[in-house]
Amino acid sequence: MAQTSGVEHSVHIIPADGGAGAGEGELVATAERRLNCFVRYVALIERLGNALGTLAFTWATVVLLGGYPTVLRSDNDKNDFWFATIIFFLEAFRMFSRNNRADYKLFFGTRGAFRLLGWNWLVLLIVYFNGVVLCFPLLSPVLFLPLLGILVAIGQFLFPGARRLLARIPLWLRRVISLWSPVIAISLLLGAYVHQYSLSKQQVNENPYQTYFQLRHYKVAICIAYGVLLVVVLLVTVSRMRFAGIIKLADSVLGSKQEFWRRVVLNLCMIGAIVTAAFSFDIIDIWYIPLLMIVVEVSTIVLASFGNFQVPSAVLRVVLPLVRFGSISHDYLCKEDDDMGSHAPAPAPSGGGCNPSIINLTPSLYIFYGMVLGQGALYLVACVVEIFSFIPRRFLIRRGGFKGQWGVDSINLYYSYDLDKCLERNVLAPNISLCKFAIVYLNSDSTKKQLHGIRIAHTLLQREPTRTRLLVKLKASTKTMTRLMRMLHQENQATIRFFAAKVIDELAKSLLVINCPGIVQNVSLLLDWGNNQHKRVNPLLDDTDEEQEQKNDLSVNAIGNRTERGDAVGDSGNLLETQESSTQQIDISNKKNSWITKQWRQVYEFWSIPQEGPLTEQDLLPVIGMSIIESLVTYDQNNCSEISSAANLIRKITRFTRFCRTDTNYTDAEKKVLVHSSLKLLYKLTSIDGEIGITLRHKISQHPFLLRNLSEVLGDITSNCETKKVASGIIRNLAIDASMRLAIGRVQKIITGLMHAFLTPDEPSSSTGASVSHSEEALRKVAGQALAMLAIGNGSNCLAMLRQTGYSFIKELTKLIDDDRYTYRCVAASLLRSVLMHARPDVKETDLKQLSYMVLGRILRADGEELEIFIGLSSHIYEAIPEELAKDFEYGQIKVTFVKRLVDALNANMEPNADCPGIMRVILEQAIELMKYDSSNTVNYFRDLHMIEVLSMVEETILEAENYTIFMGDVGLMEAGEPLSSLVARAKQLLDAH
């Protein structure tokens, strides 16, 4: 209902899934369509009333008042002239007010014609009756009811800005007024009645017994009733005071439902005071006063329920025609009547004919009053129907995913906006949708409208099909996108900034930076939130004024952090605790099969409003900002160029990788989320391929404290597996660069953490199940990849791994090579290959003997990248223990098969492949080692397989791409030492020498 001051009921429910399916989307569309149809229906009725009223106004001015002002009766009870004049001015006022939308909505809007009385109105009525009780002895009963109606009407119609005036009163004073107003109201009632009681003692009554009974018993009872009400209200008011002792006492007496019981008791006391006031008068001398007071109370409540003049004016339009319909024909006869005497409106012409001035007056009046009656009836129907608008509104609130009091307010605003638009234009015009409404409010200059617009947009983006429609509209509107970007700058509007960031986060999942210039720079501002920590300054560069300014900024920012997060969900806490407490009163534990209980629950669930959940660590502005950047990177790699060129963005992201225990801006849980978000984003940025990826990795590696922060994450036992995994992934990606491999190797804690994750994984937890096991497996894989990357071309890192205490390194790798899991055996083989290449003297031959035959078997079965890795490993094993590998050849009689496998693989990989660019290189290296150790037999095997011709083909197709070990996209990384052409020449030389 319009302009309700009552309480919207709400109950906490489980939030709906953000990615609802097609069925949920249909429900949302149905709810929105029903509300739109309802609005059209109400608007159509009101517009018909407007049209009929305009026609009546024209009829009155042109036909009646313009042509027959002298013939309309105005004597005694025949008041057609005055009735027409009243209707004339009433309709003129309504029509003229339409030129000003605000005035028309205030005085004659269908929405807001009725309003629900709430707690404040009950207190106001009590105060009002204080004046009635005090003034009644001085007033005539004839003046009582008119005065009552006039005061109530003036008070509610002419002071709509009372709330805005109250908002200017200091918060502490408003709380004092709210706290003590019930006590003051009942105190005034008690004082007024005591005063009346003292005056009544001085009056002389003819019946002493009745006077004694009335004064000694009845009035004393009324005083006691007021006194009891005052004591109860005073106790409840004291229990609401914010003192530790009182709070503790109230908790012990009322428990968790204290707020609920306070409101129940106060409401009952206010109602009791109203009822008692009706029987607080002398029932003997003025017997009708109690009945009159009841009528006064009911009429006051009815009058107070009117939101504007629409209903009273409609009632007047209905009453006036009904009063005159029965007597129009009698009052305006066509022929002269002797009974009319001097009251005849005009002399009749000679001959007894009809008076020409009133020939058509009677049907004209019927038409006029009929149109006025129809207009009033239509207005009343529209007002009554509008009362039930809460049904489609509540349906849309629940189906659309709106929560809390802000959701109610937003749908109410949408309803008013939709109704106004339907009244302004053709009723059959295209529908107003929530998406259009959200964009209109987003582009408004009003802060309140912007807040509702951005929150509605955020809600609509949580589910289909509204998500798709709104995304299309937002991205198509440059004005709206610009407005969203500006909202990120509104640091003084915390809630707007927060939801603007959430909306942009959804947009970024399918957004090209080129279509939204400046988005990266604007999102970068979110990463400054709460991160303006005091910096130590070198004494030679210290500036006292700047340092003091930084301290002030830190203090303000620390306060702003807490305030901003509190404000972002402030609306969710505005719902009265009564709703939650009343929910607890419904005990259905023993009535699960009760039909009444089920029906009650369905009604209650429909009426209740889902409450908003509290903010989580994921709702920190820096976390949202990093999520936006990650979405941009994920959607299109072309967005990375803008990210790379953004000033200080990489530095801001990297700064969050440190878990600073001395930072008081965030809690420990928030710090962990920030660390994980920043690491996740850096992992995404370092995984970019191409030239832009090289640039990003170089920028990220330049941060002086990055490696230290990564080592802390790997060594922190409180960090979860997912966080350690992304940290290991960053190290793996940065290790593509040779200089970074060297720098990472100097941080021994990183090597230790990676080896612990790769070689000694934790056992799966039985309490958490497979999900934890999966995350641990992912961490183990990425940690092994990082170790393998660090070992490529870096002997010092290989030695550091071999010399780690607590591990049998080669044996552990051997177990993993024999593992059925593809990734583990490839990673272990690549790592062992690098160790044998750069630190073979530190490897025991006994550890390699059991590995040789296993590797040969893998080569015969493997293909692609795995084949490249195992052939490279076998060549270094053969170089380390040639005799043992020769025995394996002879034992399994697979030498010819092995040589044929090498030649076939060389033929199959003539065309360069970015997945295994070094496969021809490792094949040639393996062939050279075989021919060097067992020259006679092996060379013959190769000759029989036309190795010379194959080498010639390789020599003719050598490309620069085959000199790289790894490719990321189309860019080759990590060049090999010896050129491929040199290996071909050596192989040919060995073949020609024998």
UniProtKB/TrEMBL annotation:
Keywords: Membrane, Transmembrane, Transmembrane helix. The chain crosses the membrane at residues 48-69, 81-97, 118-139, 145-166, 178-198, 218-239, 260-281, 287-307, 366-391. SUPFAM superfamilies: ARM repeat. InterPro entries: ARM-like, ARM-type_fold. Gene3D superfamilies: Leucine-rich Repeat Variant. It comes from the Eukaryota. This is BLE2 protein. It comes from Sorghum bicolor.
